[in-house]
């Protein structure tokens, strides 16, 4: 299958631009439309993604209202949360499969308020009445047919799906780091897992914000969303719960003065320290094309412009409770957003999962 038409909503944003580059260089996809409202009518030159053969391509933005949704076999929505779910519904009703990059459709984010707003979306996205009455919590599999698109954890559901909720960038790094422990039953009930993570500023999108000005960010480093209140906690809690872990998660994001990349350090008390801790991750991700389990501590330079999670694990010395530290690095725009969205789209369209993706 070649020349499969795909559309991109929010194509002028950071994630949308990355999607334009990946789609333009993809061997089997072709761009049906790319939307931007403030920059409607503008033509931009999109370079080929690093690590993927291809030439620069010109992309002309159309207004979101003018997007020919029905022309696309699959639509990526890289719109801000709040706006995205409604456009995902429209794209799906127009006949397209959908990968929604926002938090709107992720587990733990579907609220009764959002579901009420979406109204007709219920049947289109196969949510049952149980989902509509749900308060802020993860819908069960019976309530929602929208898989959480953390591909390595949910591959078969993604392959069969019409609509996929692409994960947040921090959860991609942290959940890939923690999932093998949850699956191996090594997380004690009630244990406290601490995840500290730092992200480059493209994680915040490209809408103007005073706290993201060069002068505010450069040469500095700070936490934000502190007090365990960040928007990504619900999807991480829901996913850990679905993997059988009953733990407390404390997550603190930090803003790093680089353009792209996330490094997450997860400190995890375990029921018993495995003799060869790294083997747990090597076994869990054997054969995974986009997970690199390595001996050395991963850095942002290792993963920038690549659709991978690179991780390692070390036992923590000098503490009474057996404890591991898992270090995971990703590119927030690639495995954390556009790359993983294309990985999911490849599966949904019956293509090779790795097609068009920089490793
Ligand atoms: N940046 C990242 O690392 C990650 C982002 N995401 C998610 O991906 C999505 C896109 O993120 P990002 O690219 O960073 O965001 P940006 O703010 O950089 O881009 C947002 C895009 O949406 C358009 N847009 C904004 N508001 C509306 C609206 N009300 N209706 C229609 N179009 C609108 C913007 O264009 P215009 O203003 O011209 O309309 C722009 O094209 C978000 O949901 C984000 O949460 C997920 C994981 C990681
Ligand atoms: C540095 C920065 O601000 N990062 C963003 C996360 C980006 C992301 O993953 O976004 P969504 O969950 O919105 O899709 C934040 O902390 O809100």
TrEMBL record:
Q: Which InterPro entries match?
A: AGPR (IPR050085), AGPR_AS (IPR023013), AGPR_dimerisation_dom (IPR058924), AGPR_type-1 (IPR000706), NAD(P)-bd_dom_sf (IPR036291), Semialdehyde_DH_NAD-bd (IPR000534)
Compartments (UniProt record): Cytoplasm
Coiled coil regions in record: none
Q: Output the Gene Ontology cellular-component terms.
A: cytoplasm
What does it catalyze? N-acetyl-L-glutamate 5-semialdehyde + phosphate + NADP(+) = N-acetyl-L-glutamyl 5-phosphate + NADPH + H(+)
Q: Which residues form the Semialdehyde dehydrogenase NAD-binding domain?
A: 5-161
Q: In which pathway does it act?
A: Amino-acid biosynthesis; L-arginine biosynthesis; N(2)-acetyl-L-ornithine from L-glutamate: step 3/4
Q: Which residues form the active site?
A: 169
- Give GO BP annotations, semicolon-separated: L-arginine biosynthetic process
EC number, UniProt record: 1.2.1.38
Q: What's in the keyword line of the UniProt record?
A: Amino-acid biosynthesis, Arginine biosynthesis, Cytoplasm, NADP, Oxidoreductase
Q: Name one Pfam family in it.
A: Semialdhyde_dh
Entry GO MF terms: N-acetyl-gamma-glutamyl-phosphate reductase activity; NAD binding; NADP+ binding
The record's similarity note reads:
Belongs to the NAGSA dehydrogenase family. Type 1 subfamily.
Per its database record, what is this protein's job?
Catalyzes the NADPH-dependent reduction of N-acetyl-5-glutamyl phosphate to yield N-acetyl-L-glutamate 5-semialdehyde.
Name of the molecule in the record = N-acetyl-gamma-glutamyl-phosphate reductase
Q: Which gene encodes it?
A: argC
